[in-house]
């Protein structure tokens, strides 16, 4: 076993001291450094498990922070929140198997999307979603993403990061 890279450790230490915005910047850089990944978004699960909401992103223009989605009985929620497993869509058809908004992602130029649960203490506390061109989720890329997920879990060390306001829930 080797220690974490000292430069990355220093970046994480500084970001954790500064707050979530700086941590999302470091995490976004790490995930988008994976070959083919163009966008990374970070999604929290509300404590009452009724909704998920975007808390960070490498692309705030197309994926604004604050977007709230109700937890429904569908493939995405059942797989990520229920089974605590990732969903991998390495093609448009693969994305469409779990994302109803696939057409919108294709219109933005994406051909692949995968979502990875952040499981802490036996429950999914959040999700890292990564997007890029079709065919990017090779075994090597997936292995690299897997090594970054425990670092992404640091997001949930910030007090209240998963909470939604009542207004946020009622908008959906």
Short summary of the structure?
The protein has 172 residues and is an alpha+beta fold.
Which terms summarize this structure?
Beta-Lactamase; alpha+beta; disordered C terminus; six-stranded antiparallel beta sheet; globular; 172 residues; 7 helices
Chain-wise SSE layout:
Elements: H1 6-18, H2 20-32, E1 37-45, E2 51-57, E3 68-70, H3 75-82, E4 87-89, H4 92-96, H5 102-107, E5 112-120, E6 123-132, H6 139-152, H7 166-170
Antiparallel strand pairs: 1-2, 1-6, 2-3, 4-5, 5-6
The tally of domains stands at: 1
Strand order of the largest sheet: 3-2-1-6-5-4
- Gap between N and C termini: 46 Å
Mean pLDDT figure: 91
Shape: globular
Unreliable spans are 166-172
The main sheet comes to: 6 strands, antiparallel
What is the name of the CATH architecture?
Answer: 2-Layer Sandwich
Q: State the share of residues found in helices, binned by percent.
A: 25-40%
CATH superfamily: GAF domain
Number of helices: 7
Q: What's the total count of β strands?
A: 6
- The assigned structural class equals alpha+beta
| Assembly state (oligomeric) | single chain
Evaluate the radius of gyration: 15 Å
Helix-strand pattern, N to C? HHEEEHEHHEEHH
Strand content: 15-25%
Can you tell me the CATH class?
A: Alpha Beta
């Amino acid at each position: 076993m080797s220690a974490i890279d000292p430069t990355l450790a220093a970046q994480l230490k500084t970001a954790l001291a500064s707050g979530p915005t700086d941590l999302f910047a470091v995490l976004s850089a790490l995930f988008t450094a994976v070959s083919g990944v163009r966008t990374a978004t970070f999604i929290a699960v509300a404590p009452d498990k009724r909704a998920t909401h975007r808390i960070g992103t490498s692309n705030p223009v197309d994926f604004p922070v604050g977007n709230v989605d109700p937890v429904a009985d569908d493939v995405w929620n059942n797989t990520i929140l229920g089974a605590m497993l990732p969903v991998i869509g390495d093609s448009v058809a693969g994305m469409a198997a779990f994302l109803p908004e696939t057409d919108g992602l294709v219109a933005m130029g994406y051909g692949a999307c995968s979502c990875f649960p952040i499981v802490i203490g036996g429950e999914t506390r959040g999700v890292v979603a990564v997007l890029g061109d079709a065919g990017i989720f090779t075994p090597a890329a997936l292995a690299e993403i897997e090594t970054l997920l425990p670092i992404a879990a640091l997001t949930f060390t910030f007090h209240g990061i998963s909470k939604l306001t009542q207004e946020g829930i009622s908008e959906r």
